[in-house]
Amino acid sequence: MSERTERSEGRGSRPGQDGMGERTERSEGRESRPGEPAVGSGGKRVVRPYGDTTGDGMVQVSFTLPVPHDKRAEGAAVQLANRMGIDPAMLVHAKPMSDGFTFFVVYGRVNHLVDLDRVQVVERDFPLLGAKEVNAVVKQRLRRKLSVVGACIGTDAHTVGIDAILNVKGIAGEKGLEYYRELKVTNLGAQVSVPELVEAARRERADAVLVSQVVTQRDAHLHNTREMSAAFREALPAGKRPLLIVGGPRFDEKMTAELGVDRIFGRGTTPGEVASYLVHALVTDRKARV
Ligand code: B12
Is 132 a catalytic residue? Predict the structure, then answer.
């Protein structure tokens, strides 16, 4: 906490604004070393953003307002930042985008703390296997190739992500699922309709269906995913349904139950993680699915 312990109740901070559902709190206890969270008196591990000095609470945000660029527009950007809890807020960049729109970058201080022990994320709960291990487990225990069908559904044409997972060329030096001898990959590409996907999954006797959704405008990724999972549920009885996996950079990995899928993969996913999950879910640890 900014080298010294400090009460974090500056201007703009109201109860419930600290992301912890309670008033921002005094972070007493031992001082933090750079790069290390402070441990409060209750043993809590808390952090604040780092800008110029450790724990100074400085953040940078960018946004566009539907107003032409003038002094009033700049004032509006600062006011918005203040209302977001950034106080003081400094306007560091303003650029007209097109008629009637201005893009802003604001730098300033927030008073909120993050309690690391209350952060909720989906951790990897299966072992990471190499390609040889994946092939060996599938061959020995499934005794046939594991069939995977992948696609970008709806109007989404962003195939780079699903290709990174499926195509042999892979991503970041890691080969995609096509490289795995015991996996049979059918990549349907872009803008596949849900009925086409269900049909292909039946035809290929898919063990797993991998869907990519990159466009999130008007929550298209959520609507499309719900539509897809409902269609599989309607078309196939539980037990016959393939594992449903969805991925893309802006998914919340915690939304599996809400979207009716078995697993969600986000930014920076590697083919190895996906192959390891397939083996875990379909071969070594088969469990009832949603
Ligand atoms: C390349 C690109 C395009 C290319 C796509 C080419 C192609 N064949 O894919 C083209 C030029 C066609 C394009 C078009 C459009 N695009 Co575009 N595009 C991008 C861009 C620059 C990069 C996306 C990308 O390739 N990332 C690299 C891959 C490797 O990352 P990834 O997709 O996140 O995938 C990883 C993980 O998410 C995960 N993953 C992804 N899918 C899956 C699936 C499974 C099953 C699993 C396990 C994992 C997984 O694993 C991958 C590897 O780690 C982004 C901006 C950006 N920097 O991200 C905009 C972006 C996605 N595009 C955008 C938009 C708006 C469009 C258009 C609507 C623009 C227009 N007005 O025409 C059109 C829509 C076309 C359509 N019908 O879909 C917006 C989306 C905004 C939003 N909120 O939805 C972005 C964010 C740009 C922006 N900031 O405005 N685009």
Answer: no
For CA atoms 105, 109, 112, 118, give the dihedral sign: positive
- Peptide bond preceding 88 in cis form (omega within 30 of 0): yes
Angle at 66 between CA 61 and CA 69, to 5 degrees: 80
DSSP track, 87-125: SSEEEEEEEEEETTEEEEEEEEE----EEGGG-------
Q: Pick the closest to residue 246 from 220, 271, 228, 270 (CA basis).
A: 228
Cα separation values, 6 from 76, 111, 119, 241, Å: 30, 10, 22, 55
* CA–CA dist 173, 264 (Å, integer): 22
Taking only the tens place, the pLDDT of each residue in 182-191 is: 999 999 999 9
**Distances 58 to 48, 89, 151, 194, 220 between C-alpha atoms, Å:** 8, 10, 41, 45, 33
Check 95, 132, 145, 169 and give the catalytic one: 169
Say whether 186 sits in a helix, a strand or coil.
strand
CB 255 within 8 A of CB 219: no
pTM attached to this predicted model = 0.86
CB 281 within 8 A of CB 129: no
Does the pLDDT value for residue 6 go beyond 50? no
Mutate to test the pocket of ligand 1, among 63, 158, 162 (most ligand atoms within 8 A of CB): 158
Q: What number is the average pLDDT over the span 233-260?
A: 96
How do residues 53-103 score in pLDDT, each as one tens digit? 999 999 999 999 999 999 999 999 999 999 999 999 999 999 999 899 999
Q: Which 8-state DSSP code applies to residue 142?
A: I
Atom of ligand 1 nearest to the CA of 250: 37
Distance of CA 252 to the CA centre of its chain: 5
Reduced to 3 states (helix: H, G, I; strand: E, B; else coil), residue 246 is strand
